C-alpha cells in the first residue's frame, strides 16, 4: 500500500518525539530532580506512533504504566507532561498523577494506569460508548503489555468486547518481559495473538519495531471496527531498550538477545527506510532539530513552572466539591 | 399515600431515570428479560428500553464495572448491577483503583458517574459467599460514595440522586428489604446524598442503625416504649459521607447511643460512627456508645445459625437497657 510522504514524515516525527522525550526524561530522572519512578517506552515507539496515526482526537486510548509514548502519539502536550514529571502545578494532573498517570480527556486520552491490565476493561467501556453514542464512528485503542495479557481483566474485557462487537483495538505490546519475567515462563502460547481465536475476534501479529507494519495493521483493524465487525487483537512483537523501570539494569536479559534487538531499533529502521524511499536526508535532519527543540522547550517549561500549594493534595477527591 | 415495595421503588427509580436521560445504560448479569435481575429489580426494563440500553453481561464482574467506568468517561452514564455484594471482590480493582481515583489522580479532569448496585446481608440461607455485609470496605476508600437505604422512599430517592451524582456510588440493598413496603409518592422527588433521617423521635437514647437494622431498631423501640423508654432511631442512609451533624445533634439530645449494623463487629462502620460521636458530642455522653453488630464469623447456612450471627430486636433492647 502506498503511504503518502506527508504521512511518513508525520510518523517519523511522532517516533522522534517519543524517543527524545523518553531520553530526556531518563536523563532528568537520573539527575535526581524528579521523584518516583519511570518506565520508558524506548524501543517501542513504532507501536504507539503506528496505531495512533489511524486515530483522530475523537477516538479514545487507554494506556499503561509505560505510557508516555501512547499519550505523546495521541497528541498530549510535552510541556504539560514534563511538568507533571517535575511535580509542577502546570502538569496534566496538578502533580498528583506523575509518570504513570498522564491523561488528557479533551483529546481522548483516558489515562495511563498504574495497575497492569487496569485499562483493558475501561477500553471496553469506551467501546460501548463508541457503539451506542457514536454509531462506531469512533474507536478505542487499548494498549497493554504481554504481562497484562495474563490478567483476568484481559479475558473478561476482550470477551465482552467480542460478544458485543465493540470497536476496540486491543494492542498487546509483547516486549518479551513482564518486569524480569520472561514471557516464555509466563505464557503458554508462543503468539499472544492466537488468543483472539478464543474470543471470536480477529487476531493479528505485527512487527512492533516496524512502524509501517503497525500502521497498516492498525488501519485494517480500525476499518473493521468502524464497519461494526468488532475488536481486533494486535500483538506487536517488540523489545525494551532499557530495563523495566528507571533503576533496572535488566541483567536478566542475555546480551546476545539485547544486541540482536538493538540492530532492529525502530527509529533506525525507519530512518533507513525513508532514505530508501528517496526522502531527502536534510528533510529528516530538520524534523529532528524541530523535535529536539520541542523537548528542550518542555524541559524549560517544566523547570520554570511553579510548584503548587501542597494543600491541593486535599482537593478533587470528589467531583463537584 | 400509595404503598409500594422496596424492589418496586428501585425499579421506578431506574425507569424514570432511563426516560429522563437517554445516555443512561444498565448492565449486569441476568438483568434482562430472561431473568429480570436476580431479585427482579430490573423487571420489565429491557422490554421497555431495549437490549442496547439494558444489557445482559457474561459473568465478568471486573469487566462489568470496568466497562461502566470506561463508558462513563466517554459520554454514557451507567448503572451496573452486581448480582451479590459478595462478588464485588471480583471487581475490586475497577472500583477502588480506577473508579474511585480517576477524578483525583488525573487532576480533576474527568468524573466517573457510575452507580454499582448490589444486594447484601444474611437472608435466605445462601451461605458464606452470598450473605456478607461489606459496606465498610468501600466506606474506607476516598472517592467513593456509599449508600444503604432502609425504606422504599429512601431507596427510590437515593437511587435517583446516585444516578445523577458525578461520583462513583456504591448502592447496597439488603435482601430482606426488597419485599418490604412503604409510602412512596407518585410525584418525582430526590433524597439528597449525605443526609441522615430521623426515623423515630425520642429522648432517652439514640439508636443509629443502617439498612435492615433500621426496621429492627424501630420494632425494638416499640417494645422499649411500652417500658417507658423513649428511643430516637437515626438512619444515616449514606455511609460515606456520614451526616456528622445529624449524628451529633441526636446524641446531644439523648446522651446515650447504640449503633446497630449487620456487618461483622470488627472494622465495621460502627467504629467510624463512634469516632464521629466522640468528635461531635463527647461532652454530652451520659454513657459509653455501644455497638450491636454481626458476629465476627462468615455467615452460616442453617436458618437458625444464620439469624443467630446477626443482630436482632432482643439484642438491641438488651444493649439499650445496659446504658439506660
Looking at this protein, list some descriptive labels.
heterodimer, A: 321 residues, alpha/beta, Rossmann fold, two-stranded antiparallel ribbon, 11 helices, 43% helix, B: 324 residues, 2 domains, seven-stranded mixed β-sheet, five-stranded mixed β-sheet, 12 helices, 14 strands
Query: CATH homologous superfamily of the largest domain in chain B, by name?
Result: Thiamin diphosphate (ThDP)-binding fold, Pyr/PP domains
Q: What class, by secondary structure content of chain A?
A: alpha/beta
CATH superfamily of chain A: Thiamin diphosphate (ThDP)-binding fold, Pyr/PP domains
Please give the share of residues in helix of chain B.
Answer: 25-40%
Sheet of most strands of chain B: 7 strands, mixed
Give the percentage of residues in beta strands of chain B. Answer: 15-25%
In spatial order, strands of the major sheet of chain B run: 3-2-4-5-7-6-12
CATH architecture label name of the largest domain in chain B: 3-Layer(aba) Sandwich
Number of helices of chain B: 12
Provide the gyration radius of chain B in Å.
19 Å
The residue-averaged pLDDT of chain B reads: 98
**Sheet having the most strands of chain A:** 5 strands, parallel
The top level CATH class name of chain A:
Alpha Beta
| Unreliable stretches of chain A | none
What is the helix content of chain A? Answer: 40-55%
Structural class of chain B: alpha/beta
- Reported by name, the CATH topology of the largest domain in chain B is Rossmann fold
Number of helical regions of chain A: 11
Please explain how this structure is put together:
The complex is a heterodimer of chains A (321) and B (324). Chain A is an alpha/beta fold and 321 residues long. Chain A has 11 helices and 7 strands. Chain A is globular. Chain B folds into 2 domains: 3-183, Rossmann fold (3-Layer(aba) Sandwich); 197-323, Rossmann fold. Chain B has 12 helices and 14 strands. The interface between A and B is large, with 47 and 46 residues.
Amino acid at each position: 500500500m502506498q503511504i503518502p510522504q506527508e504521512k511518513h514524515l508525520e510518523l517519523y516525527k511522532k517516533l522522534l518525539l517519543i524517543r527524545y522525550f523518553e531520553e530526556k526524561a531518563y536523563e532528568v530522572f537520573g539527575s535526581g530532580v524528579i521523584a518516583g519512578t519511570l518506565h520508558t517506552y524506548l524501543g517501542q515507539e513504532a507501536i504507539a506512533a503506528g496505531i495512533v496515526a489511524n486515530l483522530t482526537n475523537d477516538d479514545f486510548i487507554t494506556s499503561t504504566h509505560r505510557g508516555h509514548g501512547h499519550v505523546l502519539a495521541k497528541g498530549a502536550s510535552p510541556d504539560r507532561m514534563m511538568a507533571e514529571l517535575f511535580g509542577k502545578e502546570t502538569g496534566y494532573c496538578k502533580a498528583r498523577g506523575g509518570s504513570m498517570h498522564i491523561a488528557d480527556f479533551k483529546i481522548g486520552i483516558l489515562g495511563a494506569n498504574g495497575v497492569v491490565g487496569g485499562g483493558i476493561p475501561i477500553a471496553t467501556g469506551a467501546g460501548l460508548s463508541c457503539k451506542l453514542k457514536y454509531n462506531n464512528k469512533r474507536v478505542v485503542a487499548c494498549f497493554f503489555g504481554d504481562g497484562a495479557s495474563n490478567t483476568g481483566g484481559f479475558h473478561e474485557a476482550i470477551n465482552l468486547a467480542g460478544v458485543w462487537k465493540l470497536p476496540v483495538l486491543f494492542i498487546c505490546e509483547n516486549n518479551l518481559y513482564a518486569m524480569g519475567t520472561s514471557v516464555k515462563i509466563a505464557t503458554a502460547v508462543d503468539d499472544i495473538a492466537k488468543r483472539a481465536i478464543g474470543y471470536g475476534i480477529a487476531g493479528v501479529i505485527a512487527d512492533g519495531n516496524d512502524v509501517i507494519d503497525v500502521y497498516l495493521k492498525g488501519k485494517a483493524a480500525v476499518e473493521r471496527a468502524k464497519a461494526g465487525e468488532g475488536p481486533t487483537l494486535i500483538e506487536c512483537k517488540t523489545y525494551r531498550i532499557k530495563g523495566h523501570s528507571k533503576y533496572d539494569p535488566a541483567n536478566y536479559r542475555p546480551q546476545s538477545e539485547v544486541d540482536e534487538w538493538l540492530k532492529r531499533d525502530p527509529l533506525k529502521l525507519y530512518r533507513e527506510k525513508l532514505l530508501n524511499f528517496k526522502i531527502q536526508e536534510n528533510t529528516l535532519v530538520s524534523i529532528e532539530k524541530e523535535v529536539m527543540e520541542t523537548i528542550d522547550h518542555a524541559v524549560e517549561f517544566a523547570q520554570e513552572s511553579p510548584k503548587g500549594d501542597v494543600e491541593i493534595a486535599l482537593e478533587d477527591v470528589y467531583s463537584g466539591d | 399515600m400509595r404503598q409500594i415495595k422496596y424492589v418496586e421503588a428501585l425499579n421506578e427509580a431506574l425507569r424514570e431515570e432511563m426516560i429522563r436521560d437517554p445516555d443512561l445504560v444498565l448492565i449486569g448479569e441476568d438483568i434482562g428479560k430472561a431473568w429480570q435481575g436476580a431479585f427482579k429489580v430490573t423487571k420489565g426494563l429491557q422490554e421497555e428500553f431495549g437490549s442496547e440500553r439494558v444489557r445482559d453481561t457474561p459473568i465478568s464482574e471486573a469487566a462489568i464495572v470496568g466497562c461502566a467506568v470506561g463508558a462513563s468517561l466517554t459520554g454514557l452514564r451507567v448503572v451496573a448491577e452486581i448480582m451479590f455484594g459478595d462478588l464485588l471482590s471480583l471487581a475490586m480493582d475497577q472500583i477502588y483503583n480506577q473508579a474511585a481515583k480517576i477524578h483525583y489522580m488525573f487532576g480533576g479532569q474527568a468524573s466517573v458517574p457510575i452507580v454499582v448496585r448490589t444486594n447484601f446481608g444474611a437472608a435466605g440461607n445462601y451461605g458464606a459467599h452470598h450473605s456478607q455485609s461489606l459496606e465498610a470496605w468501600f466506606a474506607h476508600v476516598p472517592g467513593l460514595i456509599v449508600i444503604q437505604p432502609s425504606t422504599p422512599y429512601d431507596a427510590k430517592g437515593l437511587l435517583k440522586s446516585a444516578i445523577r451524582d458525578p461520583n462513583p456510588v456504591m448502592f447496597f440493598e439488603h435482601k430482606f428489604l426488597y419485599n418490604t413496603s412503604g409510602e412512596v409518592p407518585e410525584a418525582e422527588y430526590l433524597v439528597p446524598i449525605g443526609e441522615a433521617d430521623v426515623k423515630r423521635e425520642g429522648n432517652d437514647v439514640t439508636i443509629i442503625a443502617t439498612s435492615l437494622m433500621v426496621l429492627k431498631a424501630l420494632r425494638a423501640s416499640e417494645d422499649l416504649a411500652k417500658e417507658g423508654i423513649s428511643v430516637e432511631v437515626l438512619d444515616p442512609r449514606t455511609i460515606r459521607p456520614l451526616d456528622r451533624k445529624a449524628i451529633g445533634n441526636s446524641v446531644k439530645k439523648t446522651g446515650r447511643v447504640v449503633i446497630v449494623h449487620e456487618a461483622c463487629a470488627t472494622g465495621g462502620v460502627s467504629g467510624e460512627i463512634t469516632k464521629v460521636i466522640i468528635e461531635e458530642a463527647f461532652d454530652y455522653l451520659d454513657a459509653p456508645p455501644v455497638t450491636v453488630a454481626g458476629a465476627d464469623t462468615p455467615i452460616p447456612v442453617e436458618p437458625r445459625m444464620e439469624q443467630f450471627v446477626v443482630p436482632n430486636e432482643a439484642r438491641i433492647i438488651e444493649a439499650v437497657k445496659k446504658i439506660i
